[in-house]
């Protein structure tokens, strides 16, 4: 669906994309993640045919982007973070216009019903809320029944219900169909929930790529375990368990903290120690590392404005 090899793009002395390579296969939702200024937007714009690369190669649906995407344009759907829609057109007019651009469009009425805008058919686009406009943009993007979706921070203006709807629509569009989607997002929750694989980029280069679970296991394995026990429980009881981090005094109680590269052996050791010493284990908390932990480890914690 998408093949990127050594892609490069500069603006003056700034190298926005610096030898980026990755693939998107049929049936995948791939997330392109990175801090501000990492090169995500430039990469998406090149793949959408909006910018020409300085070097490297990018194929979209088998077509070299440097030669233009017109032959495959009707097979592509795009959702931008902030879509510039015709404000004075009605929702129904815009849907009809979009459907006319494609050889095998979907049912426009059904799409508007799906995104909760069936009652807004006669309303001007300019009268819609930001979330409604974004849901409309998603409906328009798939109106032509595309094989490939480009989604640039598509849920940035959506409430939790709208976000869940869009996630469901993307899954329905891709799962088991041979279609694919490339997504940019700053939401690690969204990437972890929606993407079969993610590519983490920074300074225009690929840092890591794989499924969210595989990236967590590779870069931030392990878990943090804590529980409450009696205030008088001796530290020595817990210090003998590998992964002991410390004991946090609380009113009438103590909270004990452990960290280990693998959860199961740690829990087994804790259970054995509990049987041997008879201490209480209450309010047990288990926290595994997340894709967000991987992202921060690879890209750092420094704030980026651009």
CATH architecture label of the largest domain: 3-Layer(aba) Sandwich
Count of distinct structural domains: 2
**Total count of strands:** 14
Percent range for β-strand residues:
25-35%
- Elements, N to C (H/E): EEEHEEEHHHEHEHEEHEHEEHEH
Order of strands in the sheet with the most strands?
6-7-8-3-9-10
Question: Which regions have little confidence, pLDDT < 50, spanning 5+ residues?
Answer: none
Derived from helix and strand composition plus strand pairing, the structural class reads: alpha/beta
Nearest-integer average pLDDT: 90
Q: What's the overall geometry?
A: elongated
CATH class wording of the largest domain: Alpha Beta
Q: Terminal Cα separation, in Å?
A: 29 Å
**CATH superfamily placement of the largest domain:** P-loop containing nucleotide triphosphate hydrolases
GO molecular function, one term: ATP binding
Organism: Rhodospirillum centenum (strain ATCC 51521 / SW)
Keywords: ATP-binding, Nucleotide-binding, Transport
Domain ABC transporter: 2-228
Can you walk me through this structure?
The chain is of the alpha/beta class. The protein has 2 domains: 2-217, Rossmann fold, CATH 3.40.50; 222-288, Alpha-Beta Plaits. 31% of the residues lie in helices and 29% in strands. It is built from 10 helices and 14 strands. It has a 6-stranded mixed sheet, with helices on both faces. Helix 7 crosses helix 10. The mean pLDDT is 90.
